Amino acid sequence: MKIQRISLLKGNTLTLSGNEYVIKKQIGYGASCLAYEAKKQGFLGHSVIIKEFYPLKYAHCIKRCDDNLTLSVIRNETLIEKLKKEFMTGAEKEVAFYDNDTNHRLGSYSTFAESNGTAYLIKDLAHGQILANCRETLSLCDIAQVMQSLCNAMNVLHNAGNLYLDIKPENIFVFNKDVSYRIGIFDFDTVIENNKDILDKSLGMGSKYWSPPEQKTWTVGSIGTATDIFAIGAVFYWLISGKNAEDDWLEEVIDSVYSGDWDFLKESPKIQGFVNATETAKKILSETLLSSADERMNKVEELAGMFNKFEKESETRKENEPVVDKIDALIKMLENKLNQINVSYPQHSNDTKESRFNNDGFIAELNKAEECLNNKQYSKSLLFLNKLISLFSYESICDKDILIDLKNFLVKFA
């Protein structure tokens, strides 16, 4: 019978390394731990992520005590203690990685502690949030910067002779824009030396939704830097597509990439209209999301260069986006018309009362449309313009052919 792990409850307080943390909610789980969002107590208290060592495979050997904090091992003590040490070793690797002067620019925010019969990894959320929770807020340019930072972090690990093997949104921390780096990585318990003898002794690791075929089958001869690169490509696709990770979610994309069928990108909302960036995205996906590790790119610094190119292209949407150009041109045309003529529009109510929509009203609507355009709220801008065009049509301000063209434009892009 499968034994469920019993999680900490909202309001439980953990005292770790002299600090108090109040649990807010459980936010995730992995093979070795449960993850929670918590608040650090104190005058400058802020949110943290706490990962509690609690291995799924041996949940039946561990009891959550009456205080709902302590974990007591009731059998297989030696094995579970060994697994806890491995968890702590991963935490130590992570802290050491960011404490290194060379890597400090990649961010530093993790600590670890032992208490309540188990071990914890604490991640500071004062300066950002995990990627899994902020996809919708990222622009295409933000995505490019996040991916470059991820490549840089992997490059450090690969150059040191290691593989990460668990790249996924839940393991990537996105810093606010007021810092020079954009991401940090955590959960170093999967980091392993890129050595065939060591890989042979491993039982396999990683997350099934983000892992390439050779990792799922643990084909040691094929596991290498290209394995991490596949997962980078998967995260990139997840960011631009808006799709949720699920069983075999990448198989259709892999088949499409291999056959050169790019129709699936037409459904990716963030990249619509970025003509040059779309072409670079195709190249990135065609170098990363391949079933065969031998055919995949294996130099992460080369991938970083492609994301740098993608970033530059993601800043030039206006040059390649006909919708934006047309809205901008439409605003200028209407503005010129308003400068030439004082407009009065009768708006009837109950067939008896009449109110005047004068030139000032038109200008106010036009200003709203322009403000929405500047804020990249294209649909909202079009709504204001549609209203203005209807008023212009009523007053016969524009030539009939111009109005037909404008209305066709609105039908196509609104």
Condensed summary:
With 414 residues, this protein is an alpha+beta fold.
Mean pLDDT: 79
Number of strands: 15
- Structural class assignment: alpha+beta
Radius of gyration: 27 Å
Query: What's the helix-strand series?
Result: EEEEEEHEEEHEEEEHHHHHHHHEEHHH
* Span of the ends, CA to CA: 55 Å
The level of helicity is: 40-55%
Spatial strand arrangement across the major sheet: 1-2-3-4-8-7
Based on CA inertia axes, which overall geometry fits?
Answer: globular
Supply the number of helical segments. 13
Protein model, in words:
- By secondary structure, this protein is α+β, with helices and mostly antiparallel strands.
- Helices cover 43% and strands 18% of the residues.
- The chain has 13 helices and 15 strands.
- The strands form five sheets. A six-stranded antiparallel beta sheet has the order 1-2-3-4-8-7, covered by helices on one side. It has a three-stranded antiparallel beta sheet with strand order 9-11-12.
- The longest helix has 23 residues.
- The radius of gyration is 27 Å and the shape is globular.
- The N and C termini lie far apart (55 Å).
What is the element layout, followed by pairings?
Blueprint: E1 13-16, E2 19-29, E3 33-40, E4 47-53, E5 62-64, E6 71-73, H1 77-99, E7 110-115, E8 118-124, E9 128-130, H2 140-159, E10 162-163, E11 172-175, E12 183-185, E13 192-193, H3 196-201, H4 213-216, H5 225-241, H6 251-259, H7 275-288, H8 300-314, H9 317-320, H10 322-340, E14 345-349, E15 353-357, H11 359-374, H12 378-395, H13 400-413
